[in-house]
């Protein structure tokens, strides 16, 4: 006789509520856990813990689960609201899958970037996992299992704390600093931490600040309120970037769209143009050339003289042309980006796109050349750009190394590809960057025909040891 499913307690916490909703959808479709496994290929015991509210689900599980049960995004939206700190009372009074409250109004408070709180051994931490179709995704596994040996082979990742938000703390005064100065300082800390450690443990921190600013906006008026909205826009854009680097492109779209929405009320045209350019970059990562080009061209038209924003937009438009298979238009757009960068006197007060330089254009051009099949020129472009990177750009160096390795593989230089891939792997494992690991998964596939070459075998063995495999 089969064991009776454990009775759920949806009102115990938002996590329990989310798990109960997932089981309700599964039961509605008449799916057992084992049958569901055939559709989404996640361990049934892990899914059961999520349904019981005993473990937080990974975004990839929720997305796969939603698709499998035909929830049309309801479970994804519910998960986003739970992550953003919605309370059980709000969930009970109005299901988030059928309403879209402003997440900026969550009950959080301004605080310094808090340290990770203590976690139970059953809570999940994110680790890279290789799926049956060759992709690398991040999944949540119980901390006890991970530290007990399941993740011991994951190079450098076991020492990273779990990514989660700290509970709200009492509002405290910040001596000699306005709330806006404090928030900007927090944002700078998050940006610097991302370059070194990757996005997973920073996403909850960014969302805490977004919620906190929403509370501050409720009590502000006039110019102060607009300034808070401007800072909230910047945090939303940053949150979108964190999700983009973590490989959750749907969440990246959500937060970048929120940033664009808020930017129009912030009274900062440069900020709006920058967010438009970021939307073009995201569309390029999602391999949507139409949006990549159209949004970038809109940003180009709006860009103010004396800023680097037009050059940023032209660069992302160029990659959109490459994705469309238009090499002439792509290379012309990269040349135009360089002309825009050097053909004007940049206003020192114009800070958006301050990282834009020749090396950045070179590395984006190299990426496009690789996609267009000119692998040798792409590898040279990546090598030149990597040599120009500032010391603090640890994670970006890993992304560029991974793409350089793929370019070497495309040009038939297997040993160089494997050696460069190993450099990228060390950075990908330490930062948890899904962009790096996704590039390396493709490199692994490209190197299969040279799998007997010792250097290639070393790379593939190292990648296999660093990434869990789908159960």
UniProtKB/TrEMBL annotation:
Name residues in a coiled coil.
none
Q: Where is the HTH cro/C1-type domain?
A: 22-64
Stored InterPro entries: Cro/C1-type_HTH, Lambda_DNA-bd_dom_sf, TPR-like_helical_dom_sf
Q: Which domain of life is it from?
A: Bacteria
Under what name is this protein listed?
Helix-turn-helix transcriptional regulator
The organism is Streptomyces zaomyceticus
